[in-house]
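INFO batch 0412 | record 1 of 1 | parsing
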Amino acid sequence: MIEQGMEKEIINKKKKVLEFRHVSAYYKERSARKKVLDDVSFSLYEGEIVGLLGESGSGKSTLCKCVLGLLKECEGIVTHYTERPQMVFQDPYGSLNPRKTIGWILEEPLRVRKMGTKEERKARVLEMLETVHLSEELYSRYPRELSGGQRQRVSLAQALLTGTKFILLDEALSALDVTVQAQMIRLLKELQEKQNLCYLFVSHDLDVVSQICDRVLFIKDGKVIETTGAIESK
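INFO prediction complete | emitting tokens
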């Protein structure tokens, strides 16, 4: 077992990926202003998996919107030390264009960034399919022709193609059965170790979080009320 002082020393040697400092967020209800996040502070570091655990309505989605810069009514300081995170959503079918092939979908972020030639983009996509343990035969298929687990791997591949080191997984395993969940957990850990990724793993499932996360932020009524695992540096 690692002593608390040693944990703090280890985490201090890692590079920060994200920092929240005294962040509060609000929604407007008619003429009123409702506080949804209340003075939240935490940091994420490279190479770690941090769970964000809470019930529906606790503030998880609002916190994610603040991470992504999607909420105007957000006070405090949100600092990104890498590129903005990429998202993997709960519903892989809903997040993939049903009218486009897997190859087209995965090449899109590369096209937008004007990365490489057409041939180089295809080669990169085929390499990424292999990275997430999918056959290159899926390149020409449509999302409807894939299983839920395969679609979620495609979503993960799409997030990784930009070269990001920070991925936000929003209930990304909750729509999968237990066997497929276990496969995805192994894949996520494998990629995290190989590429030194940071995941913010949002969930309401304590069992899944305990299997994959290095530490956990518990959120209730807009406040982070407890942190388990590694000690936050100050």
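INFO post-check: Residues 1-7 have pLDDT under 50 and may be disordered.
INFO record closed
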